[in-house]
Each structure stands twice: as structure tokens, then as C-alpha cells.
């Protein structure tokens, strides 16, 4: 006879599924900690985006109920509004001027700071300060005064025999004054460049110096390839920010985009249509067009990065 073990009726059942239970507990704890971000993203980002997308297909003046008009806002924007295309051209001009010059200045200062032995923290903070201050309306108003008739720039150039006048009153110069304010705020990309430069092995420069490579050859063959991922990151980040420029153009032109729409950047015209003319449906359509344009430009940058962005683990075959 074979004895069979029996379990008392009041005994607890054997534990099963211990690992899945612990996994569910960890997932539950993770969602608890993530819930503020998820709630904030849903309420403050996703829901407004959905409402904006709906309004882009309506005629809405913020006072009456939205009236569905289909693609009318988009067709008017692309085919019937010459100021819209002027704002596009002005924004592209600003981006082409501001982004490359800002990155070049940031890289030059980062290279200079890398060789500084004493007071590096002070210089780094001093060059980063404009990035903290430049986005404020007060600094933009000071910038307007500097480039106005009789301002510091006008007086300086007049003393050198160059009579241009106030830049903000000249259609050909006004957008340059706006771009210079962005270029002046090179602190954030400079810090990123400096961090990237410090990660380049010094042995590469030492070997190049032994082989007789000049400073320019070292810069072209070592610094730029090794720094290309950081350069790509800064380019994408600054490009996205440049397409959304608003405060400098608003302050320099007193919210009008003048003279002759020379500072009418895209977001300033969007603001004018939405809050000045109360065409919120049209402004929503402009916002979505801008989002798609930024997405397309970013996709092109990522696509072309395969030809010039190199990583250490890719054996110089480009980004994957």
C-alpha cells in the first residue's frame, strides 16, 4: 500500500506564480510614479493637440461656437494668403542665418575654453548666461533699443563712417538684428560642444602631432568626425527652436512684423491671426502646418546624417 500525503483542510494553498506577481507589483509601482507625467502629458499636451487639430478644420473666433469648414483654412493658407508665404520666407531666412552662425560661434568658444586651465568655470558660466537671459522680453526690448535709430550700433557704425541708421527700421537689416539676438544666445550649444570635446581621446591629437599634422588637419580629421554626433544633436535642437522663434521678432517689430513684413516670422503671423484677428481656426491650421514642416526637416536631417555623422562603434561607416 502506498501512503499518500494529505493536506489539512485549513492549510494555505501552495504559492504559485510568484515571479509574475512580483512583476505585476513592480509595474504597478512604476505606473504610480509615472502617473503625474502621464496625466500632465494627456491633459496639457495630447488633449490640446487634439482640440487644435479639430479647430484647424473649423471657423472659430473664440467667441462663437466652432463651425466646420473642412480644408478651407488650409487651402486659403496655401493659395490665397500672400502674407503667409512672406512669413515662411522670413522664417527660412532667419533659420539659415541664425542656426549656422550660432553653432559656429558656440564651437569656436568651446574649443577656446577647452584649453583654458584656470577660471574655466567662470568663463563657462559667463558665456552661458545669455542663454538664460536672451529669451526674456526685457532683453529683447533692450536689443530693440540698441539697434534703433540713435542706438549703440547706429552710433558705432556712424563713427566708423558707415551710415546705415537703425537696423530695425530697414527691411533688409531688421531680420539680421533678430538673428543676432539668437546667435548671442550660444551658451547652451557651447556647453554641449565642450562636453563632447572633452570626450575625444587626447592620444589621437598626440599621434597626429607626431605625424606632423597641422592644427587645421587635426580639426578636420579628428575633431569634426569625433564631434559629429554632438554637432548633429545641436543642429537638430537649434533648428527646431529657430523655426519657433517669436519673442525677438515680436519685441523688435512691436508685434507688427515690420518694416514691410521683414520680421514677420511664422509664429508671429500665427499669433496675429489667432489673437489679434481672432481667426483661431486659421491659426490652428498654421500650427499644424508648422509641426509637419519641422517634422519633415528633422526627418531630412536624420536621413542625411548617415553620410556625415560617425560613431566610434560604427568603424567610420556613418550613423545607422
Helix content: 55-70%
Based on the structure given, which CATH architecture is correct?
A: Orthogonal Bundle
CATH topology: MetI-like fold
CATH superfamily: MetI-like
Description of the molecule:
It is a multi-pass membrane protein. With 320 residues, this protein is mainly alpha-helical. It has one domain: MetI-like fold. Helices cover 68% and strands 1% of the residues. The protein contains 13 helices and two strands. It has a two-stranded antiparallel sheet with strand order 1-2. The termini are far apart.
What's this, in brief?
The protein has about 325 residues and is an all-alpha fold. Helix content is about 70%, strand content about 0%.
How would the blueprint of this fold be written?
Layout lengths: L17 H38 L2 E2 L7 E2 L3 H8 L2 H33 L5 H14 L3 H10 L5 H8 L11 H14 L2 H12 L3 H9 L4 H29 L3 H6 L13 H11 L3 H25 L16
Helix pairs in contact: 3-7, 3-8, 3-10, 3-12, 4-8, 8-10, 10-13, 12-13
